[in-house]
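Task: encode each sequence below as C-alpha cells.

Item 1
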Amino acid sequence: MRDLEEIIRELDAIESIKKLKARYFRFVDEKKHIELAALFTPDARLVTDGITWKSPTEFANTIRDLTGAAPSVHHGHMPEIDITGPDKATGIWAMEDLLTFPAGEDAPEGHHGYGQYRETYRKVQGQWLIDTLLLTRFRMDALDNWDANAA
C-alpha cells in the first residue's frame, strides 16, 4: 500500500504538469513565443500534424510566423496524466483550437480544430517540462476569416 507522502508527491506532480500545459496553451494565444519554447526540454521531440520540428525554438517561431497577430483560442481538456518515475510522466489531452486571420489575398484559411496531444514530461532541475509532444488532429472545420476594417 502506498503511503500518504507518496500520494501527495504524485498529486503535486500531476498538478504541476497541468499548470505546465495550461501555460503552453496560454503562451500560444498570448503570442509569448520565447516563453513557449522554454516549456520544453532542450532536446524535446515535437511532432504536430505529421511535421517534426528540429527544436522547441523552431516550433515556437513557426507558430509566431504562421499566426502573427491573429487571435487564436487553444484549449486542453480531460488530462490523463500518469507519473511513471520520480522525474518522468506521460499525458494525453483532448484539444480544441480556433484560429482566424484578417481577410486578404494571402490569408490562410481559418479553422476550428479538434484532436489529441500525447506527451511525455521530464522533471529538470526541479521543474516539469514537456519532453515529447505528438499532436494529432481528428477534425478540422473551416472558419471564415474576418475583415479588420469592418465596423
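Item 2
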Amino acid sequence: MKVIDKLAWIELQNQSILSTKSYGKDKFYIPGGKREVGETDEQALLREIEEELSVKLDAETLHYIGTFEAQAHGHPEGVMVKMTCYGGKYVGDLKASAEIEEIQWLKYTDQDKIAEVDKLIFDYLKQKGLLD
C-alpha cells in the first residue's frame, strides 16, 4: 500500500476552517504539503504555508493536533494519504499564491467540497466543538 505523507496547517476562525483549492483541482484542501528531503515537520510547514498563502507561521506557536489517514483523492484505490496536522499563529495577510487558485473559509456542512482525509479532520474538529 502506498502512503502519501503530508502536513497540514489548521487555521480556525469563527467556527470555520481555512481551506485552499489549487489550480486544476476539484476539491478544497487544508493548506500544507509534503516535506522536502531533510526537512522537519516544522520546517516543511513554515515553507509550504509561506509559498501557498504568503504568510509566516510563528514556529513557537505550532502545536500538534492529530494525524489522519484516508484514501487519497484523485489516486487509484489503495493509495492513502496520511495528514499530520498542526495549528499555530501567523503573521501577514492571507492571499492565494503559487499553485493556490482560491481560499475559502469552510463550515462542517461544506463536506461536498473536500477530500476524504479532510472529512476525517472536519469530523474531529466538529466533535471538539471547533467547527460549525
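Check on item 2: The chain has two helices and nine strands. Strands lie at 3-10, 12-13, 16-22, 32-33, 56-57, 63-71, 80-87, 90-91, 100-106.
End of task.
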